[in-house]
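Assemble and predict.
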Amino acid sequence: MLPTTDRFKKGAKETLADPVIQMSMEAVYTGFHTNRQSAGAATEGWDGQRDRGRAIKEHTIANLDYYLEMLTDKIDANGGNVFFADDSAAATEYILNLARARDVKTVIKSKSMVSEEMSLAHEMEAVGIEAVETDLGEYIIQLAGEAPYHIIAPAIHKSQDQVAEMFSEMTGTDPGQTPEGLTTTARGMLRETFLRADMSVTGVNFAVAESGSIVLVTNEGNGRMCTSMPRVHVAVMGMEKIVPSIQDLGMMLRILIRSATGQRISSYVTMINGPRRDEEEDGPEEFHLVIVDNGRMKLLADPKLREALYCLRCGACLNACPVYRKVGGHSYGWVYPGPIGAVVSPVMSGLKQGKDLPFASSLCGACREVCPVRIDIPNMLLHLRQQVVEGPPEDRNIGRIERLGWKAWRFGNMKSSRFRAGGKIANLLGRPFARKGMFRRLPPPLSGWTRSRDLPIPASSPFRDRFKKRQSGDGE
Amino acid sequence: MAITGRDTFLERVRGALGRTPGAPELDDATHIGLAVEDVRRSADDVRREMSESGDALLDAMTESAGMAGWKVRRVASPEDAADVVAEICSEAGATNVLRSDQDVFASIPVDVALSLKGITLGVATVGGVGDDIPALKKAAFDADVGITGVDYAIAETGTVVLHPRKGLSRLVSLAPGRHIAILNWGDVLPSLDELFTLERADFNNGAIEGSMNLISGPSRTGDIAATIVDGMHGPFEVHLVIVG
């Protein structure tokens, strides 16, 4: 997917003015976030399990070369194929070549964020292969020609009416259908596709190094359909998705699913250990795993950003984030929105273009609090902000006036005498413009502040003076 | 089969980790340190617990399965189980029912009970419903109900566990609109952790299957207006018949 991360401010402004999206986005808080909070509270040893989850990811990423080797040796032994891709283009080329070699006409896709990085469905359509998303949310945004809005709920921004209208245009169904009716319509359409599909592309929630297994988690059953129906199954994963042992899965599934939707478990968890065994009744004849870098190496190489690779893609940080809930998913301009997106999207797709993203946060820390593996997102955002402001002047995202302002601020705060004098001067100069001790409207660039809130004027007698008077006995 | 592009990729990983070129420091990778013998012993412990606490685990499963969206029926005998299965099929107006070819149907006389109700029953295997995999797929998509036994159940989450294999198609529990799962006493595990302990012991013994499915309620979606709707791709109705 081509990044439009430089459109953040424009996108945010548009989303804030869109009442349909603002209404739809309420659900991520009232639904996902609330459910996640109660699921955590109801789980015995919840915080300990999160600590353990973090420790496992920390260990695995620190020994990623070791585990990648083990994983791929095991897949090989299980009768599967492995392709290591440096970038999206290489991964796409491998999959397209495979599809051509196997004379594939129709591909069914289960939700995969990595395949979004590759715009894989689009690339397939471009060479004449039918590619159909089978997660209902992904299916809807594919019909709408849009990118996912949320990591686990890609079409969360669409209202029921919008979806009904889209389905009606396509199939002639009643434009006033309920979610139940719409789901039945989609079920029927997708069942036909399942029956004729030759190949599937799925994501990977966990890859188990010791056994060469991949694990898929879905509620709809599209993960199961995609790994049961076609002749060829291709799984695509970011290089960080590994856990060492089968025995790590219980705890990892627990923290992933409870953080994502608040369920105890999703309807379906599927573990795939290669292609179907000879004696089996059905299942794919071929299994391919594509392991993708596509910019992750940059996260791995920076000790301050490495923990972004612990991410399980549960979406809890999005739901908790007061900024994401207002500016929406598309404003972030690449595959991953929200707090974790503000870290990984600019690093993976280019910090120069995405320099506004690390600033799209109030650093309130809600993301870190809900993260199942306790990723310190605010700290990484600060690290990236530092890289932006210390980068070449033309790549910074603050103008000359703002820089000058901060210089003046620094000068004024270097000595207490300057600070004191500054306060007095601001009070004297400001008094004629203030009403009831507040600035209501200031000229640019300070208007950026007063447009949405008042600014109190510095007190004529600062606290420091009053405190001193009080201490010396002649206080008020 | 084939691994492509690994050497250069791993060198880049090592570079990013700041390792000297060459083999990883195996000493650091101590996580999979649990000896095969320990895993086998804990798997034995798990099996002992399954039978010693069989009643309590079955009670816990009855409750959690209900919460997960299963319609739970508990019966005392194999004959009663077969009657309940036939009843569910006939109440659903099913005319076309598929079952797997698992051992459980040797003790639970589902075939007889269904034929008494005049319901056609197919066995979801290649050879059972047709001569090839496409025929099996079509039969599974056309069936009103799919019936299977289960390998395990998990009390923590209301889950049933199936390992597709000879006699057990991947689709019989997925493609029909209704799934009936039959659970026997003694097959319930306390939590996900015990399942993966057993799975790891099987893996160490070289006896791991091609895939494993954990099923916890009906197929579900919340993707339109955050409204939960059952029956997206898989069954919209799931029944758990507990024997014991």
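The mean pLDDT of chain B is 94.
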